[in-house]
């Protein structure tokens, strides 16, 4: 089968199963192209909550599909590659969060959606890279616990200096590997380009950015900015969406291009098998789901 034939077969199978296909902005280009909706964590959560489809085939990593199941418990949620996890989400467990909270009685807990349902269930409010400063501000307190991403926490504290942020020391291995030297080399090669960086990057990298944005934030920024060229400081698959969102502009990735092996583990063939069988499915125990839902819904209400 050609690529086009496979994509057509997946679309037909999804229609016959009343399934919507969601894909994160870091998915392989051929997977993004077969999806009904491509977005960042916040946009994907909103779409999962609002869809009328009976099944959600989630091309992303486990915590994203789990968040969809938390929001849409009556729907079948399928993750084409069950081993597609997020190492940052695994850096804090529920028992670790319980022990951490005991050390800081009374402090609210803000948890990045890159976390397990069990951790979300122990959380006051979740956030994504698109809304983390607003979420922290919304609490109206002067101290919060923030898990699991220390780099996102550091960036939020620069945006919300009135709040002391106590950060869990987790990180994304893909973004942590990006160095200031890589960004400086790209800037030297493309001096007119604007630098867009994801807040999971280290502070020394973010200091070099013109704009710090979620993945979909970068798509919007590139389309609306007067700049003609952009250096893209995040996972390289976003280049596909950027070229589609602003085809008249030029985008440069880093050398070497940052790649998340977990996002890359979902192939078009696995999507095809998942849509045909509506397997493998993501499930969340009901007591955990209810507790996690409160934190996720609170986040969505904030924006
Ligand atoms: P976004 O929500 O910005 O798409 O980021 C998700 C993610 O996992 C980044 O590594
Ligand atoms: Fe997790 Fe990083 Fe991959 Fe995002 S890019 S899914 S944070 S490992």
The assigned CATH architecture of the largest domain is 3-Layer(aba) Sandwich
CATH class of the largest domain: Alpha Beta
CATH topology-level name of the largest domain: Rossmann fold
Proportion of beta-strand residues? 15-25%
Q: Into how many domains do the coordinates divide?
A: 3
Name the poorly predicted regions.
Answer: none
CATH superfamily grouping of the largest domain: NadA-like
Q: What is the β-strand count?
A: 12
Order of helices and strands: HEHEHEHEHEHEHEHEHHEHEHEHEHHH
Number of helices: 16
Bound molecules: 1,3-dihydroxyacetonephosphate, iron/sulfur cluster
Structural class determined from secondary elements? alpha/beta
**First-to-last CA distance:** 42 Å
What sort of overall outline do the alpha carbons produce when their principal axes are compared? globular
Notes on the structure:
The chain is of the alpha/beta class and 303 residues long. It folds into 3 domains: 104 residues, NadA-like (Rossmann fold, 3-Layer(aba) Sandwich), CATH 3.40.50; 99 residues, 3-Layer(aba) Sandwich (Rossmann fold); 80 residues, NadA-like (Rossmann fold, 3-Layer(aba) Sandwich), CATH 3.40.50. It has a 4-stranded parallel beta sheet, with helices on both faces. Strands 6-5-7-8 form a 4-stranded parallel beta sheet. Helix 4 links the parallel strand 3 and strand 4. Helix 1 packs parallel to helix 15, helix 3 packs parallel to helix 4 and helix 12 packs parallel to helix 13. The longest helix is centred in the last third of the chain and has 17 residues. The protein is globular, with a radius of gyration of 19 Å. It starts with a helix and ends with a helix. The model has no long low-confidence stretch (mean pLDDT 97). The site of iron/sulfur cluster (SF4) has 14 residues, from helix 9 and helix 14.
